[in-house]
Amino acid sequence: MAKNLRAVAGQTHPLPNPFLVIATQNPIELEGTYPLPEAEIDRFMIRVNLSYPDPQQEKSILVYKNLYGESLPVQERVGPELLEAAAEEVRAVKVHPDVIEYIVGLITASRKDERLVIGASPRAEIALLYAAKARAALSGRSYVIPEDVKKSLFGVINHRLVLKPEYIGVSRRPDYTLLHKIVDDYIRAVGVPR
Which residues, given as ranges, of the chain have pLDDT below 50? Predict the structure, then answer.
């Protein structure tokens, strides 16, 4: 296993293995923050777009906040050993060459899309491969099927696609409807392996 290292101000620091970064972004409030360049955004494997919680979830949030304030108790559910075992299981998932061709076809479609300034990168293909393998493992399979790729595609590429200005919405809240349509267009256009 490769060592995780991070350099800060010229000093290298070892990081624990496994190591994971989860970042949050509020797409409405940008005051005091700066948009990341495309090359940095491309290094995030998946972007999950969250909507507002439903009223029952909001009620649960308030109940916990009322009880615990800002010191919400956190319990470890999975240790590093189990995470590494899960990663090993995902690595062992098989991918047929036709499914790899399908992944390449979907990503290549984004590069030919006239609605985009920038399509998905080779890094997106790798992320899509890994996400599909993880989805297969979570489904109890030791092999990837095209449906794993389809279901992983939006999360993997929605943050990597840069729309031309005429396609960017003017609302204050992000609307991912067009991005969903674009991804659906790729799924319809690229032949599914049998």
Answer: 1
Strands of 3-161 (E only): list them. 4-8, 11-15, 116-118
CB 130 within 8 A of CB 91: no
Query: For residues 43 and 159, is the Cβ–Cβ distance under 8 A?
Result: no
Q: Which domains does the chain have, with CATH numbers?
A: 92-194 (1.10.8.80)
Tokens at residue 117, please? 């300034």
Predicted confidence at residue 1, as pLDDT, reads 46
For 65, residues 6+ apart whose C-beta sits below 8 A from its C-beta are 72
Q: Are strands 11-15 and 116-118 parallel, antiparallel or unpaired?
A: unpaired
Which two three-digit tokens encode residue 138? 């979570």
Q: How many CB atoms lie within 10 A of CB 49?
A: 13
